[in-house]
Predict the 3D structure of the following.
Amino acid sequence: MPHNEPTPPDPPPLDPSDLHPTDLDPTDLDPTWAIDTALVHLGRPAREPGQPLNVPIEAVSTYHAGGEVEYARDGTRGSQALESALAGLEGGHALAFASGMAAASALLDTVDTGGIVVAPRHAYTGVAVRARKLDQLGRVSLRTVDISDTDEVAAAADGASMIWIESPTNPMMEVADIAAIATIGKANRATVVCDNTFATPMAQRPLELGADVVLHSATKMIGGHSDLLAGVLVFADSDAAASMLPQRTLLGGFPGALECFLALRGLRTLALRWRHAQNSTQILAERLAQHPAISRVRYPGLPDDPGYFRAQRTMAGPGTVLAVEFTGGPGAARSLSDRVRLWVHATSLGGVESLLERRRRWALESELVPEDLVRMSVGIEDVEDLWADLSAALERV
Ligand SMILES: Cc1ncc(COP(=O)(O)O)c(C=O)c1O
């Protein structure tokens, strides 16, 4: 029985050599520390008398000439602190951006003109739309695939410059075999990117599985409070990170001082938020699967989900987002947002507050996403309060 599958492994221990060479890491990262401990201590100023515990918010655009930093768009102590933390968590070399989309656009920009990009047919709308636009402009040649079908990815990878993984996908919740795709990428000399926004380093570390770059919308679980926009790229290779640095400066998608501070502050509690929300998501997914108003639940924590076994094997947990479809079709899906009182009808995900939305309300969302699909991002409220509100609303859709 799927229920008897072994429990998912703990996140892998962290390696001190993964850290950025920066004085913002106060101690060598102890490899025996759990991720919870690393989350609290990474990206802080040196432990010296009089040093603050947190890198302060420096509201400044320019610096007295002749120093290490001249202009804020090149990098600030605040962005370096956030990068240092993400570098340690993902095991690479990090660069912070103004948003997940700024990070994604900077990466897509590295593909040579005419280069082939293999990407999920269901990726986050912004990434999918941008990749399509670049294809229409003749900048890249886009091949879309079912990213959970590794054979399909292998067939599309011939001659590719970049393979873009998102796992689980937003909002269809498909799970990719990152290690297998990384091997395919290497065989084709393609850069393998993994958008780890949904899984976070709590559930998977794609660089360890062979990916070349990890992308985060830090707007989501990392920030965790729906109060900032930020993005991060983490490169396995320090030279690749170094060559992206001037690109970031020139493209201009650099995060503000407050955003860096808030993202790092949010990161401190990622483990607590993640575990609480993931437990609640599992409970809600199981109850929703039994509910007569719901025709399908997409969540890799459910044994009959197509991604269940792969997630059990490769992830340390199925995450905090699920999607549902309705027996009553799109009309029922539409009315859910009017009927809930505690759940918030809003786009985005990964915050402390539980959010839901019908994704096809967005004109640019893929037509492959069912009209009645509602994405639900579970926050840290009491799960029984969440269920009471949801089940009361579902009675009336
Ligand atoms: C999986 C994923 N990647 C990237 C992004 C883009 O991030 P941002 O909104 O920070 O630009 C999003 C936003 O929803 C997302 O869900």
